[in-house]
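STRUCTURE:
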């Protein structure tokens, strides 16, 4: 499902969804309408806690070395997360995630 500023995903309750961070990405940034849940890198480490946000707003998380070209996940989240610096697609797991052709081709190089 798409989750961009123009087309936010409509998730209900608490949810867990994955997204892809392409090779060369230095920051995962977006907008959150909720302040519950965490963001995990490709190794499962918590890299951002949305409870630290006072209200809805923008978030920015640096991508550590070796964490690009990997699946990241939002866990136990509420509200919407709109991705701005990575492909704005969310899925229940990696097998269900669809990516734009240009992202897949660029990561092959």
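SEQUENCE:
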């Amino acid at each position: 499902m798409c989750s961009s500023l123009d087309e936010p995903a409509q998730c209900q309750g608490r949810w867990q969804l994955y997204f892809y961070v392409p090779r060369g990405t230095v920051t995962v940034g977006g907008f959150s309408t909720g302040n519950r849940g965490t963001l995990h890198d490709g190794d499962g480490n918590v890299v951002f806690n949305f409870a630290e946000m006072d209200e809805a707003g923008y978030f920015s998380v640096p991508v550590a070395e070796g964490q690009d070209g990997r699946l990241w996940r939002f866990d136990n989240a509420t509200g919407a997360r709109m991705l701005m610096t990575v492909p704005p697609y969310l899925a229940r797991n990696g097998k269900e995630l669809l990516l734009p052709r240009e992202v897949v081709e660029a990561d092959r190089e």
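REMARK: The two ends are 26 Å apart (CA to CA).
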